[in-house]
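User: quick one, fold this
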Amino acid sequence: MTTWLDIPSWYVIQTKPKQEERAYYNLSVSGIETFVPKIINSIKNKFSGRTKHQLNPLFPQYIFAKFKAKEKLQQVRFTRGVHKIVSYGDTPCPIDEEIINMIKDRSSEDDLIDLENEFKAGDRVIITRPHLQNLVGIFKKKLNHNQRVSILLSSINYQVHVSVDRKYVMKSN
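Assistant:
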């Protein structure tokens, strides 16, 4: 008789502190499908004023893994980097695949999640940066890890593509 433990399902894996990548790697090597959504945090150095971009997990100390619990539960539990499988009592709690797909739909090929307003090619946008403030353009594409965007600005006589920090762009009504 087939039970839900025989069907590959997604589970939330709690990792040991700062060991998301280690758990991800070890589970992947074991043939287990894993997913670690990531975001880019901008950290400003208070002394130099420079901004540093750091890649971090979207859910610190948590990753997702898809496996048949009946076959792989013990292997996952004892994988280096794994603290535990999120469970209700002693029973691991599967996550609906739609939730994983919803997160994956917001991510790029390298599992980078865009938490900002999602721009689509052709969207009308306004630049809020001084010197270009209130210029209206058409969103073209994202550049270098979603930190900059390409916008087509039009005037009466010509069109020009500009690259602007994403934080200075918002959707136009």
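User: anything notable?
Assistant: The helical segments are 20-29, 69-77, 97-105.
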